[in-house]
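Exercise: predict the structure of this protein bound to PRP.
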Amino acid sequence: MSEDEKIYVSYNNIHKLCQNAATEIRSVGKPDIIIAIGGGGFIPARILRSFIKYPGETNIPIQAIGLSLYENMGGIGQVEKIGKEVVRTQWLDFGALEQHFDSLIGKNILIVDEVDDTRTTLHYALNELHKDVEELAVKLGRTNEHTKFSIFVLHNKDKPKKADISREMMNGGVYIAAKTVPDAWIAYPWEAIDIDEHSVKAIAQGNN
Ligand SMILES: O=P(O)(O)OC[C@H]1O[C@H](OP(=O)(O)OP(=O)(O)O)[C@H](O)[C@@H]1O
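Solution:
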């Protein structure tokens, strides 16, 4: 793919995409916790928090999970096979969460990533988080509590997906893509070697 076929996105644009999505995210209630999928979900998650937390409200904790897509498994982590494989490099510490925050049972959880490409990563994240919370709820006898999962991405690529997001598991949560884009390479600013040149290209494409 030539440089010109890429979609260039500036930091300003990412900031505004997060800002614009905040109201819709709040439409199903204030998230109790944000779970950012690293590395691409980290920066959007932090920006988003400032917009979804209204003045006077308590802060929303951000927790990180590490998921990477690999052609081959390479022997690390847990793997689910849907085309490319998801390797889990970091997960939640449920014990520490319960001690310092609360358990995730009955909470409004927001999963954040930068891009929904084949949907493999989001499928994995939702399924595994849902499974863990459900297992914990059974163990603690709290299965009557309503845990809701919402998903936010900056960009959803308009293409056939390799996996689904289960609405049943989301339990009333929303799926929000700030922008739906064609199936092209998205050049994010955090990958730019020359950020000034990158910003110029993003502005020229109207992504500022
Ligand atoms: O919809 P999918 O086809 O699953 O692709 C989307 C995922 O791919 C990228 O992750 P990557 O594994 O490249 O890791 P990174 O976030 O650390 O760059 C991206 O950050 C998403 O998490």
